[in-house]
Design brief:
By secondary structure, the chain is α+β, with helices and mostly antiparallel strands. It contains six helices and 18 strands. It is 21% helix and 27% strand. Strands 1, 2, 3, 4, 5, 6, 7, 8 and 18 form a nine-stranded antiparallel beta sheet that branches. It is globular. It starts with 38 loop residues before the first strand and ends with a strand. The structure holds pyridoxal-5'-phosphate and 2-OXO-4-methylpentanoic acid.
C-alpha cells in the first residue's frame, strides 16, 4: 500500500465526481459497512422484473411474512470494482457473479435475473457511487453486494411470489487485518459442519453463513481468525474456509491443489487463480484432499473476493481429548502466494495486461 500523500485521485470529468472524492480515510478501510450515496433496487412482481431504481435510504420496508425472514429464501454475491490510474473504474468478472447468483437462486426457487440485467445493475450502482470507489493506489476497492430474497409473504412452506434484488456498495480494504503481509492462523472445525453432501454448500445462500457463526466466533475467541471446514460425512477431507476456498501449494512439484466437492462454493477467485497458475506452468489439481495431506503443503491460501489471496500461516486441529495437532506452513508469505496475489491484483488494478479479458469497464 502507498502512503496517503502518494494516492492519486483520478479526475474523470465525465463522471459524477471521480474515484476517491468522497471524504473517507482510504488507507484505513477494513471490511465493515459504511454508508454510500445509494443502492440499486429492483422488484419481481406479477411474474416479471420491474424497472430498477436507485435508492438513497439504506432501509427497506419488508412484509412481516417475507420468505427470506422465515425460511431463508435468500442468496447474495460479492464482487469488486477497482479504480485504474487512467480514472476508469472496472468490475472484475461480473458475468461470473451473474451466473452464480442464478445458480444459487435456482437452488432455493427464486426467479432468474438475466445476466445483462445483473451486469447493468452493477454498472449503474458503481456509476452513481463513483466517489466511493477507493482511489488508485490505495489498495482498496468498492465491494458490491448483490442480494436476492423472497420479499413476499408465505407462511405455508412454498416459494414467495414477490422478490427483491438489491445491489449495495461499500468501500473496503483488507478483510483480515494486515492483508498479504500477515499470515492468518486457522482452526480446523470438528464440532460443526458448514454444508451437507447434496445440501446447499455450493450455493451462496444466506443460511450457510448463519451456520458458520458459532464455530467462527468460537475460533476467533481461541485466537484463530479463520475456520477450515471438513466434509460433513467423514471429517477426513478438506472442504473450505468460512469465507473462502482452500488452496494447497506444493512448490517442489509446482502444484496447485484445491478440493473437488459438491458442497464447496465455486469461487471465482479460485477459478481465476487456477488460470494464472496454469499460465505460469503450474499443475492444477482439483481433487479430494485428505487432512493428513496438509503436512505436505509448503503454502496454504484462502482465496475469495473479500479475502483476495490470504496466506494461511498454520492450521490447528484439536482431537476429542483436547490434544492439538498443528500444520505449519511458511512463517512469512510464501513465494507462490505472493506471485498469485500480485498477478491478480495487478490485473484488477490495470497495471498489467488483462489477457483473459476479466475487467469490465464501467
Ligand atoms: N467460499 C465461501 C464460503 C465464500 O463465501 C466465498 C466468497 O464469496 C468464496 C468461497 C470465494 O468466492 P469468490 O472467489 O467467488 O468470491
Ligand atoms: C465475498 O468474498 O464476497 C464473500 O461474500 C465472503 C463474505 C464472508 C464476506
Amino acid at each position: 500500500k502507498q502512503p496517503l500523500s502518494r494516492l492519486s485521485v483520478a479526475t474523470d470529468i465525465n463522471a459524477v465526481g471521480a474515484p476517491g472524492t468522497a471524504d473517507l480515510p482510504w488507507s484505513e478501510l477494513g471490511f465493515e459497512f459504511r454508508p454510500t450515496k445509494s443502492h440499486l433496487r429492483m422488484t419481481y412482481r406479477d411474474g416479471k422484473w420491474q424497472e430498477p431504481e436507485m435508492v438513497e435510504s439504506p432501509y427497506i420496508n419488508v412484509h412481516i411474512g417475507a420468505t427470506a425472514l422465515h425460511y431463508g429464501q435468500a442468496c447474495f454475491e460479492g464482487l469488486k470494482a477497482f479504480a485504474h490510474e487512467d480514472g476508469s473504474v472496472n468490475l472484475f468478472r461480473p458475468d461470473e457473479n451473474a451466473k452464480r447468483i442464478n445458480r444459487s437462486g435456482h437452488r432455493v426457487m427464486m426467479p432468474e435475473i438475466p445476466v445483462e440485467t445483473f451486469i447493468k445493475a452493477c454498472n449503474d450502482v458503481v456509476k452513481d457511487n463513483v466517489a466511493y470507489v477507493p482511489p488508485y493506489g490505495s489498495g482498496g476497492a468498492l465491494y458490491l453486494r448483490p442480494l436476492l430474497f423472497g420479499s413476499g409473504p408465505r407462511i405455508g412452506l412454498q416459494p414467495a411470489e414477490e422478490y427483491t434484488f438489491i445491489v449495495m456498495v461499500i468501500p473496503v480494504g483488507d478483510y483480515y487485518k494486515g492483508g498479504l503481509a500477515a499470515p492468518v492462523n486457522g482452526l480446523i472445525v470438528d464440532d460443526y459442519d458448514r454444508a451437507a453432501p447434496k445440501g446447499v454448500g455450493a450455493a451462496k445462500v444466506a443460511g450457510n453463513y448463519a451456520a458458520d457463526l458459532i464455530p467462527n466466533m468460537a475460533a476467533k475467541k481461541k485466537g484463530f481468525p479463520i475456520c477450515l471446514y471438513l466434509d460433513a460425512a467423514t471429517h477426513t477431507l478438506v472442504e473450505e474456509f468460512s469465507t473462502s476456498n482452500f488452496i494447497g501449494i506444493d512448490n517442489e512439484n509446482k502444484k496447485y491443489i484445491t478440493p473437488k466437492s459438491d458442497s464447496v462454493l465455486p469461487s471465482i477467485t479460485n477459478k481465476s487463480l487456477q488460470t494464472l497458475a496454469k499460465d505460469e506452468g503450474m499443475t492444477v489439481e482439483q481433487r479430494d484432499i485428505e487432512v493428513a495431506e496438509l503436512s505436505t503443503f509448503d503454502e496454504v491460501i484462502a482465496c475469495g473476493t473479500a479475502v483476495v489471496v490470504t496466506p494461511i500461516g498454520s492450521l490447528t486441529r484439536f482431537d476429542g481429548n483436547g490434544e492439538e495437532s498443528k500444520y505449519q506452513f511458511t512463517e512469512d508469505v510464501g513465494e507462490t502466494t505472493r506471485r498469485l496475489y500480485d498477478t491478480v491484483r495487478n490485473i484488477q488494478n490495470g497495471e498489467i495486461e488483462d489477457t483473459h479479458n476479466w475487467n469490465y469497464k464501467v
